[in-house]
DNA sequence: CCCCTATCCTGAGGGC
DNA sequence: TGCCCTCAGGATAGGG
């Protein structure tokens, strides 16, 4: 599923091809993917605008438009946002096509439809309650590991659930939460308030490292995730625990335990993680 | 306020 | 071979 590394890869892929391009033709095949404004106003409000920036905040993709508004895309579980030739056959579950001229178009596809599309100024979207408040960006130089670790330690929830809380740290999802816990040697179901400050800081540093490594590998493509051109990433093959329940731990050889934390499938090594 | 659970949705995979 | 059941989970609404 698209988490921070996958979304970052897509943004880097799309940026050169989208900057300065004009949204010439908007074709909203499934209006329900647009959550703001009313889908009936979407096309008129978008058509003819020019893309001035392409960025990421947490798992959200922001296409800045001339005039100050933004087209915001969240990929949910199975969403893809790709720049393609118009001649490429349309895949099932393509919900939005935006023609850019030169026979190219931006396509949003999302079989499971957990994704969504928003259009408006950031203030307007915040006001409408369709853009959540997001926490720290793990890749930013200002990622305050000490401060965030002490915040994390205030919670009585499972440490993994806190990592998944987008209001504390933005962009971490189920895959990289498990990976960060493994690398830090922390059981994902351990209450956050029972982690020492140094170990909580280690957890956040490991999270940043695993996210950076996954970006270098262009994201985890075991299911629907594809980059900005529709190609697979190689990060799944480098994961140490996610998707490996029952297999031997790469460190100690004990079978990895598959469990459930906060309603999410979770894999960890009961020997290496305390 | 905090935290948990149900919900949305499709496709894959297992059992029979 | 085919049907049906379960499971996967990001974000959010609602309940305890």
How would you describe this structure in keywords?
274 residues; alpha+beta; N-terminal domain of MutM-like DNA repair proteins; Helicase, Ruva Protein, domain 3; 2 domains; 5-stranded mixed β-sheet; 4-stranded antiparallel β-sheet; DNA-binding
- SSE arrangement, N to C: HEEHEEEEEEEHHHHHEE
Structural class: alpha+beta
Kindly, what is the distance between the CA atoms of the first and last residues, rounded to a whole number of angstroms?
Answer: 27 Å
**Assigned CATH superfamily of the largest domain:** MutM-like, N-terminal
General shape:
globular
Strand content: 15-25%
CATH class of the largest domain: Alpha Beta
CATH-level-2 architecture of the largest domain: Alpha-Beta Barrel
- What is the averaged pLDDT score? 95
Total strand count, please?
11
- Level of helix content? 25-40%
Kindly summarize this structure in a few lines:
The protein is of the alpha+beta class and 274 residues long.
Task: Give an overview of the whole structure.
The structure is a single chain. This protein has seven helices and eleven strands. Helix 1 (4-18) packs across helix 7 (197-216) and helix 6 packs across helix 7. The two termini are 27 Å apart. The chain has 274 residues and is of the alpha+beta class. It has helices spanning 4-18, 39-46, 122-127, 145-152, 159-163, 174-184, 197-216; strands spanning 25-28, 34-36, 51-57, 60-65, 70-74, 80-85, 94-101, 104-109, 116-120, 257-261, 264-268. The chain is 27% helix and 22% strand. It has two domains: 4-127, N-terminal domain of MutM-like DNA repair proteins, CATH 3.20.190.10; 145-268, Helicase, Ruva Protein, domain 3 (Orthogonal Bundle). The strands form three sheets. The chain has a five-stranded mixed beta sheet. A four-stranded antiparallel beta sheet has the order 1-7-8-6. The mean pLDDT is 95.
